[in-house]
Amino acid sequence: MKHLKRYTIIGIFFVLITGTLAHFLYDWTGNNHIVGFFTSINESTWEHMKLLFFPMLIYSIFLILKFRKAYPCIASSLCFGILTGTLLIPIFFYAYTSILGKDIFILDIGTFILSVIIAFWLSYKLTLLCKLESYTFLLGYLVCIVFIAFVLLTYHPPKGRLFSADVSKSISSFNNIK
Question: Is 129 exposed, middle or buried (0-12, 13-18, 19+ CB in 10 A)?
Answer without folding.
Answer: exposed
